[in-house]
Amino acid sequence: MKPEFETAPALHVSEWINADKHITLADLRGRVVVLHAFQMLCPGCVSHGIPQAINIYNAFSRNDVVVLGLHTVFEHHAVMGPEALKVFMREYRIPFPVGVDDAVSGSDIPMTMQAYGWRGTPSMVVIDRNGAVRLNHFGMLDDLRVGALLGQLVTEQASPPPAKSF
Amino acid sequence: MKPEFETAPALHVSEWINADKHITLADLRGRVVVLHAFQMLCPGCVSHGIPQAINIYNAFSRNDVVVLGLHTVFEHHAVMGPEALKVFMREYRIPFPVGVDDAVSGSDIPMTMQAYGWRGTPSMVVIDRNGAVRLNHFGMLDDLRVGALLGQLVTEQASPPPAKSF
Amino acid sequence: MKPEFETAPALHVSEWINADKHITLADLRGRVVVLHAFQMLCPGCVSHGIPQAINIYNAFSRNDVVVLGLHTVFEHHAVMGPEALKVFMREYRIPFPVGVDDAVSGSDIPMTMQAYGWRGTPSMVVIDRNGAVRLNHFGMLDDLRVGALLGQLVTEQASPPPAKSF
Amino acid sequence: MKPEFETAPALHVSEWINADKHITLADLRGRVVVLHAFQMLCPGCVSHGIPQAINIYNAFSRNDVVVLGLHTVFEHHAVMGPEALKVFMREYRIPFPVGVDDAVSGSDIPMTMQAYGWRGTPSMVVIDRNGAVRLNHFGMLDDLRVGALLGQLVTEQASPPPAKSF
Q1: For chain B, counts of helices (H) and of strands (E)
Q2: How far lies B89's CA from each of B34, B41, B96, B141, in Å?
Q3: Among B85, B91, B58, which residue's Cα sits nearest to residue B72?
Q4: 3-state SS record for A98-152
Q5: How far is CA C110 from the centre of its chain?
Q6: What is the rounded distance in angstroms from the CA atom of residue D10 to the CA atom of residue D26?
Q7: What is the mean pLDDT of chain B?
Q8: CB contact under 8 A, D87 and B43
Q9: Class of CATH domain C13-20+28-155
Q10: What's the pLDDT at B7?
Q11: Interface with chain A: mutation pick from C17, C38, C39, C41, highest number of A CBs within 10 Å
């Protein structure tokens, strides 16, 4: 018996950059999803998290692993808006879609950040082919261990959808 | 149907260091084996291959992944003998067993190196739970991709041994 | 006879951050000045130029070497204004004064950048105790060679001011 | 008045590698000398000290700065003899002359190591144009600070030799 894992909370995104259309986790069911939460002026994101996310994007087939960025601004909102983010993404050549985490009225902490309980940035979430959270980590992660988790999850089969009766 | 992979050639080792007893691949059947072939005076081995092998050793359970070094001396034999290797292993704190690749009379190339066809050092072989070669690589390898392969192989089940009839 | 070096053009700065008062090169005559021109969303500045400038700041006595940053925005002006720069400097813990290079009406290229002829960011200028430009470099520089130049310039004596007659 | 610095003790070398003839510090008077003491199986020497010494060798004119290696074996003598050292130097492409520190009968510590009082490897000594020790350091050194010291010493003039009377 496998342990049960929690279903990944939905993403709350006001705007997607580098994407043709709005992206939902439900659309990605059947593939492994790496969700990289960052802020453009967070040094650890720039030096470690984003390069690692780009490495993951380049190392796996898009049919197996989808990398999504999430701009989870929880401080200095005025200078990290979507226009600044777009320049940042162009300068740092971020090749994957990035969503802007949706603001919560009266709070500095945006909505997806609240749903996942992130303590800061960078944070990384890995979601399996069945939509369950298998890793939810704040801080740095070793490439070898991230690779091992992804290699394992890629190998796992998606469960067949439950039978429907009418 | 899985593709068929070749069964890993046997190791030819004149002496094991950091090991209680002689090690064979047959003994390790059921576990993933990472075989790291190096020479103690090879700069790429020292700067890249050996640190990566130590990382792998630290990242996985010994029940899943076994790391073995192999000292495959094919040049400058006089100064890379077992006594020099023992000092090297102590100074570089190599925690896994290392075998001395067996000399072939009349050849500079030792026996296991010939069997695996390595073109130089560092070389890395990854063997699955069923004893089949899944990677045989000369040169540098990215941590993320090595991790992904190992994560995948750890997940695979060992085949049941063939039924025996009496 | 020493070669003649050109006197450093004046800085044109609309605002200093991390400084008690407006700074001019004339005020710093007698000390070596390292001028580090950057943009906050320039990847090479963030990964290489700024860490090197901070290293220089920490390696030398303030009586010998003064490090100044200059935010020379020549693109994406809307998202790299002074408020964004202040957040960037706090997040990246930049310990030295940074001036905002003054805009030129009708041009994307700010005034000091034009005066020094920089082709982009990061650029580094080293000015000797007598106010002469000894290095004006666009791109990366090796720590050892930068150190050697600074070690040399620190050793040089400032010329006595010219005699004045009344 | 400059502080007085101690005259560098003579080198005791049984054999020079990468050199046309025996080298003495007296021969190098008038130039800055960087003496890099290492052991070929010392990890900190291989990862840090030797690359830094090669950088110094490449950054300065041979008329200003001479880099010398010294193989100061104080442990595991049997496996770090001159033949092993020659292979090591070829594999690591060490471009400067390296002397073998002379053994002292009845002691593990070779003669030059005793004269300079090194506590281990890597150690670096910097000698000025007048033959005086300006740095004698065990362990790692930052490129920027080493560069600064060398830049300063290169700038200093050699003292004229004392007048001789007949």
Answers
A1: 6, 6
A2: 18, 12, 10, 22
A3: B85
A4: EEEECCCCCCCCCHHHHHHCCCCCCEEEEECCCCEEEEEEECCCCHHHHHHHHHH
A5: 14
A6: 8
A7: 94
A8: no
A9: alpha beta
A10: 96
A11: C41
Which of D55, D60, D144 is the closest to C56 by Cβ? D144
Integer CA distances (angstroms), A24 to A6, A33, D64, in order: 17, 11, 65
The highest-level CATH class for domain B13-155 is alpha beta
Domain boundaries in chain C?
A: 13-20+28-155
CATH T-level assignment (fold) for domain A16-155? Glutaredoxin (3.40.30)
Buried b (16+ CB within 10 A) or exposed e, B69-105: bbbbbbebeebbeeebbbbbbebbebebbbbbbbeee
On chain B, the residues whose CB falls within 8 A of the CB of D76 are 87
Rounded to an integer, the average pLDDT of D71-95 is: 97
Q: How high is the ipTM of this complex?
A: 0.90
Which of A70-88 are b and which e, b meaning 16 or more Cβ less than 10 Å from the residue's Cβ? Answer: bbbbbebeebbeeebbbbb
- Give me chain A's average pLDDT, please: 94
Q: Among residues C162, C114, C154, C153, which one has the least CA distance to residue C9?
A: C114
pLDDT digits (tens, 9 = 90+) for D56-82: 999 999 999 999 999 999 999 999 999
